[in-house]
Design goal:
This protein has eleven helices and ten strands. The protein is an alpha/beta fold. The strands form two sheets. The protein has an eight-stranded mixed β-sheet, with helices on both faces. It has a two-stranded antiparallel ribbon with strand order 2-9. Helix 1 (42-52) packs parallel to helix 2 (69-77) and helix 9 crosses helix 10 (309-328). The longest helix is centred in the C-terminal third of the chain and has 25 residues, at 245-269. The radius of gyration is 24 Å and the shape is elongated.
């Protein structure tokens, strides 16, 4: 997690594309409410491009190019830049800046919301994004096909630290585990707020994300449902979490639904071989809502397994089955805050083997 730190440049210049308080080179005002914080430190821009490892043959995706300070350096380094920008004023400024330059035929600008845009092929993504789209954008990129080589993205510092957090770290959470299942994540740079115009309220960090190849063979919907339960109270033992009445009721309902589905399939198909794979209750094509929390713990008020006598017997019956799985893997006294990705995968496989599913 070690990385460099970029500080604000000393001294001021009276003009130039990197200077000014609230206006771009063409007099465009920036809206903080839209997450528009433009990079004004040329040393920072150079460092980001250098750490991205761009090849001269690369097609580069830039999200939120603003007035084009980073765009220019990306055009110098790669073959082509595809810039996705929501603000029509910024699109006009970008086109104006590069229209009479040698870069004009190597820049493609797409106006629209990146979360709703079908992204074209690209080799690498380099972006200073609006921080409010950090989580959905991260997972949109991770599920993008075909997989790209890497993404180098500026995030709010705390969000970035959650992405790279390891078991036992204070910031380790469902977001950490979800992201690291699909990608190798590393911290590159800490960036002070004064490197932006206008300055945001928080510091930032640059993170490198490299999608894993081959992709993990896990149903992403079930994986996320499983992690949501494990991280309800991440510092409590798993045995205490899986004794909660609401958790047991949900798992029991999934179990009975799956049993009924399998019974119905067997009856309708007769002697036809339907295979040994357990059917999934979720969509295995990738769910971009994975990890779309703010990175905080998933702690919430959840009822314990006492109270309503109408469901007490139902809960008690299924609780023994669930706790037997925890005992089999020796997970009873373990906590989500300290489990590795491999341990989560192993525990999920034990639950699935017992016919218990999370989606």
């Amino acid at each position: 997690m070690a990385g460099g730190k970029i500080r604000k440049e000393k001294g001021k210049q009276k003009s130039g594309p990197y200077q000014g308080q609230g206006l771009g080179a063409g007099g465009v005002s920036f809206h903080k409410s839209k997450g528009q914080h433009i990079l004004k430190n040329p040393l920072l821009v150079e460092s980001i491009v250098q750490k991205a490892g761009i090849k001269s043959t690369d097609v580069i995706l830039e999200i939120g190019p603003g007035t084009g300070n980073l765009t220019k350096k990306l055009l110098e380094a790669g073959k082509m830049v595809i810039a996705v920008e929501l603000d029509s004023r910024m699109v006009l400024e970008l086109q104006r800046r590069f229209q009479s330059t040698p870069y004009s035929n190597r820049l493609k600008v797409i106006q629209g919301d990146v979360l709703k845009t079908d992204l074209p092929y690209f080799d690498i993504c380099v972006a200073n994004i609006p921080y409010q789209i950090s989580s959905p954008l991260t997972f949109k990129l991770l599920f993008h096909q075909p997989a790209f080589r890497c993404a180098v993205i500026m995030f709010q510092k705390e969000f970035a630290m959650r992405l790279v957090a390891q078991p036992g770290d204070k910031l380790y959470c469902r977001l950490s585990v979800n992201t690291q299942l699909h990608a190798r994540v590393s911290h590159l740079l800490k960036v002070g707020k004064n490197n932006f115009r206008p300055p945001p309220k928080v510091d930032s960090s640059v993170v490198r994300i490299e999608p894993r190849k081959p992709r993990p063979q896990v149903n992403p919907v079930e994986w996320d449902g499983f992690l949501r339960i494990c991280f309800i109270r991440k510092n409590k033992t798993l045995s205490s979490i899986f004794r909660l009445k609401n958790v047991l009721l949900m798992l029991g309902k999934n179990y009975r639904t799956l049993q009924a589905l399998q019974s119905s399939q067997n009856s309708s198909l007769g002697n036809t071989d339907i295979g040994t794979d357990t059917p999934s209750l979720g969509d295995s094509n990738g769910d971009q809502s994975m990890g779309m929390d703010d990175g905080s713990d998933d702690e919430m008020d959840v009822e314990d397994d006492d109270g309503d006598s109408d469901v007490e017997g139902e809960v008690s019956e299924f609780k023994d089955k669930v706790l037997a799985v925890l005992r089999e893997g020796q997970f009873e006294e373990k906590r989500a805050s300290k489990l590795t990705q491999q341990e989560f995968l192993y525990l999920l496989s034990l639950f699935n083997k017992a016919g218990i599913h999370f989606s």
